[in-house]
Design a protein that fits this description.
This protein has 162 residues and is an alpha+beta fold. It folds into 2 domains: 1-79 and 112-121, no CATH class; 123-162, no CATH class. Helices cover 17% and strands 42% of the residues. The protein has 3 helices and 11 strands, in the order βββββββββββααα. The protein has helices spanning 125-132, 135-143, 151-160, and strands spanning 12-15, 20-25, 28-32, 39-42, 51-58, 61-69, 74-84, 89-90, 93-94, 103-114, 117-121. The strands form 3 sheets. It has a 6-stranded antiparallel beta sheet with strand order 4-5-6-7-10-11. It has a 3-stranded antiparallel beta sheet with strand order 1-2-3, with no helix packed on it. Strand 10 (103-114) and strand 11 form a beta hairpin. The protein is globular.
Length: 162
């Protein structure tokens, strides 16, 4: 919590669509004011250890990001889910089969937290090096033969090229 308090052993759920933090209090779920939360830990499905999520502003909205690498420059990931509806029209006119159910597309968006500024990146050498804006990272990526198209490469760059 921002006031220095720590709450332990509470069931937490993150609504990735609305960026809402929900906690279980008894039999009820309650919404936590995100402005009161610095970070929280949660066990993700299929994971063997807890993941840390931090709250940061990006484009004037407060979001929760998973902390993938913690150093001077932090590597963050945000999960997104977008709703896509299928077209009701075909090449011959209106589809008479009825409405199509929407599909949901899950994606992961990556960010670098530099000097308390959240910067969205793509997993590409050009995007990452232009965001870092420091020739030492470019030289180090070249020396280590990092393609920077995978999270592992980016983690190595941030860890080994300080």
């Amino acid at each position: 919590m921002k006031d220095g308090k720590m709450l332990k052993d509470i069931d937490v759920k993150l609504d990735i669509n609305q960026q809402l933090l929900l906690i279980k209090t008894g039999e009820d779920m309650g919404i936590v004011n995100a402005k009161l939360v610095d970070s929280f830990e949660v066990m993700l499905p299929g994971e063997t250890s807890k993941s840390i999520f931090i709250a940061k502003s990006f484009e004037d909205n407060l979001h929760f990001y998973q902390l993938l690498y913690d150093g001077d420059i932090k590597l963050l990931r945000k999960f997104e889910k977008r709703r896509r509806t299928k077209e009701q029209y075909t090449s011959t006119g209106y589809n008479t089969d009825g409405p199509k159910p929407p599909t949901f597309i899950k994606s992961e968006v990556y960010y670098l937290l530099i000097s308390d500024q959240v910067n969205q990146i793509r997993l590409s050498k050009k995007s990452i090096l232009s965001t870092l804006n420091n020739p030492k990272y470019e030289a180090c990526a070249k020396a280590l033969d990092l393609r920077l198209n995978k999270i592992v490469d980016l983690s190595i760059l941030l860890k080994d090229c300080k």
